[in-house]
Amino acid sequence: MAVKVEIIREVHPSARIASDVKIGSFSVIGPDVTLGPGTVIGRNVTIAGNTTIGSGNFIDDGSVLGVVPQDLKYRGSPALLIIGHNNRIGRRVTMHIGTEPGGFVTRVGDNNVFREGSHMAHDCFVDDGAVIGRSVQLAGHILVQNGAVLEDMVGVHHFVTIGRYARISSMTPVRRDVPPYTVFGGGNEEAPSVRGVNEDGIKTAGLAEDETADLRRALGELFEDEAALQTKIEQLVNMGVEGEVAYLCEFCQQSLQGKFGRYREVYRGLIPPEAAAVLPPEKLSELERILKIK
Known about the structure:
The chain is α/β, with parallel strands linked by helices. It is built from six helices and 27 strands. A ten-stranded mixed sheet has the order 3-6-9-12-15-18-21-24-26-27. A hairpin with a 7-residue loop joins strand 26 and strand 27. The model has no long low-confidence stretch (mean pLDDT 93).
């Protein structure tokens, strides 16, 4: 006698799901979830909250997305989790919605990889083409820029910015902004710091040959010895730098001006520009009322 096996899924009827989305067994999809075309959901996945997921994403078994953040400042508003296109989200990855004081939204761009057991807390922003390694822990209010690579078991303090095409060595605690195009890590009992130039990042960025040479030279001048970093930045700026070198100098200046070396500390209690860029007008107005921003 054939055994009849019933595949159980709990998909709320008001969820907006493209016709070709595949959903694995024992997965739960909440009422305010949107799933774009070509997205594949593994087994035992929970997608809750006001979560929008674009096209071509793969979400592996056991992941939990769009749930309420652990931040006690969260007041219960229907904050957002927005995930773009063609992201690969590994097994048991967790992502939280935003909070009112942090800008109302957590956002993932396109073509990112989140490996097994990684965690993205409330009000974080990951741009495009980043790789978040196994068991990486992103605290709240973090910005990870394009092409950054965080190796396994990295822990990132809240309000940190990871510059584009930077690479963070495994098991590194990150308490301050990480400059773009650098390798950042610790050794033995030394405090984590810039350890060199991320050549893979420069190659991935696809810069012109002359711009690549200028960037390598600037990185060497700034980080061979981080003493008098502000003075070195000013010297480069006075030389009329442009392109990626100008971006590097601006990034470092902002970090030096930020509290504890974290520029995004200035957005405490304010709406960060990344949130303002994606929030619908009605959500932005609601958040401004909550935060009493004029």
